[in-house]
Amino acid sequence: MEKNKYLFGIMTAILSMGLLVACDDGVDEDEPDPSEEPTEQQEDDSQ
């Protein structure tokens, strides 16, 4: 019985940490910062 309590606690902690790690702020690193100046390649693509 005591072993089950520890196992349940450890499993709960692992699941909680997994959920916290998976929920990021949604910022895509590949997207350019809108405050930055457009590069030459981006200017060529828009024409």
What does this structure look like?
By secondary structure, this protein is mostly helical. It has 2 helices and no strands. The chain has helices spanning 2-22, 40-46. The protein starts with a helix and ends with a helix. The mean pLDDT is 76.
The general outline is rod-shaped
What is the share of helical residues? 55-70%
Number of strands: 0
Write down the secondary-structure element order: HH
Poorly predicted regions are none
Total DSSP helices: 2
What is the CA-atom radius of gyration, in angstroms? 22 Å
Structural class: mainly alpha
In round numbers, the mean pLDDT is 76
Fraction of residues in β-strands: under 5%
Query: What is the terminal-to-terminal distance?
Result: 70 Å
Protein name: Lipoprotein
Organism: Metabacillus rhizosphaerae
Biased composition (Acidic residues): 25-47
Region (Disordered): 24-47
